[in-house]
Amino acid sequence: MPNLKLHCKFSKKRTGDNYEDLHKWMDEPQKVLGIDHRRVRHDLSYIPDVKEKFGDEAVSEFLMHISADYKSSARKWGLKKVNTKFSKKV
Hints:
By secondary structure, the protein is an all-alpha fold. The protein has one domain (4-76). It has five helices and no strands. Helix 1 (4-15) packs antiparallel against helix 2 (20-27). The protein is globular and about 35 Å long.
């Protein structure tokens, strides 16, 4: 799972802002819950909270944080290639 430094680096590269406060807020429950911290602040139901605390622009970085965490987990479970592109065919 990417650490705070990596989440901030990726955000900075994508947006010009590191969104450090957002990433810290998302991962704060990790201190108590460990890997289970994803039960808190790592699903779509938190989008209104993100908008209120960090602004509308932060929502995309919120989603990218979640994506990066789960992509990392997939690799740890032995999935060597994780497809992050969506097919145009439905």
